[in-house]
Write a structure and sequence with these properties.
Mean pLDDT: 96
Low-confidence stretches: none
Strand order of the largest sheet: 1-2-3-4-5-6-9-11
Radius of gyration: 18 Å
Largest sheet: 8 strands, mixed
Shape: globular
Helix content: 25-40%
Distance between the termini: 21 Å
Order of helices and strands: EEHEHEHEHHEEEHEEHE
Structural class: alpha/beta
Length: 259
């Protein structure tokens, strides 16, 4: 299996299917994975297989590294569309996440004022007020919602905390009052002999109802693009994604599909 473990605190830039030329910020250790989900489709592998030995980067380390990279790119005239918090685990789990967001916006404004700041999150920490406040400051507050089916989430997203409640997550997503982008992975196939197909009406209709309640600025739907740690997973077809995209747009919400 080809697993991707990202350097820390800065990696890339990479060309994102959804965001363009993206400079990554990884707030987790650079030698392993630390995440509040343990998704069976994660390109970084399963949590248990990649326990890190290094520590998370400090706020100061992130600030210095980001400033150095942006200063150099600006000097060289190299393009940049977005600074994206992603990497080897949930970025909002870093204890200094709100302060790091403030630092990032200040540095961005100095060197690349037109670049966007994006956060790719699994929404496990948005119950915290200070996390929500920080996310309200970024350009692209991208939050995962693969389904509203609790059994599917336990089987596929596999939250580390037993207190995860998707109904609470939806309520917290609603509290952003539209300043949020919903990101959803659609796929088919099976895992341990059980179907993981969330493209059927049983899953899509309730998910659409939740999206309508959340009223995000945009929805991003996508499917498997890289090798996954679990075998038996399959890409959703472009036809299926296009159909879901049309249904999102029919309720008045912009939708982007990545195949």
């Amino acid at each position: 299996m080809s697993t991707i473990i990202y350097p820390s605190p800065i990696f890339g830039p990479v060309h994102s299917r959804r965001l363009g030329v993206s400079l990554g910020v990884n707030l987790m250790p650079g030698d392993g994975k630390v995440c509040s989900f343990d998704c069976i489709y994660c390109e970084c592998g399963f949590n248990a297989d990649y326990r890190p030995h290094a520590k998370r980067p400090t706020r100061e380390e992130v600030r210095t590294a980001l400033s150095d990279v942006l200063r150099q790119r600006h000097k060289n005239g190299e393009p940049l569309d977005v600074i994206t918090f992603a990497g080897n685990g949930e970025p909002t789990g870093h204890p200094d996440f709100p302060a790091i967001i403030d630092d990032t916006i200040e540095i961005r404004n100095r060197f690349f004022p037109e670049a966007k700041v994006s956060v790719l999150s699994n929404a496990t920490y948005i119950y915290k007020e200070n996390i929500r406040e920080a996310l309200m400051k970024v350009d692209n507050n991208i939050q995962k919602l693969d389904t509203v089916n609790a059994a599917y989430i336990e089987k596929v997203d596999r939250p580390v905390s037993s207190s995860y409640d998707v109904e609470d997550v939806v309520k917290n997503l609603m509290s952003f009052q539209g300043h949020v982008i919903i990101q959803t992975m659609f796929m088919t196939g099976d895992y341990h002999g059980e179907s993981v197909d969330n493209t059927t009406e049983e899953y899509v209709a309730p998910w659409l109802d939740a999206v309508k309640k959340i009223a995000p600025q945009q929805v991003m739907i996508y499917t498997i693009d890289r090798e996954t740690p679990a075998h038996g997973l399959r890409k959703a077809t472009p036809e299926v994604l296009d159909n879901i995209k049309s249904r999102v747009e029919a309720i008045g919400i912009s939708c982007q599909a990545s195949y």
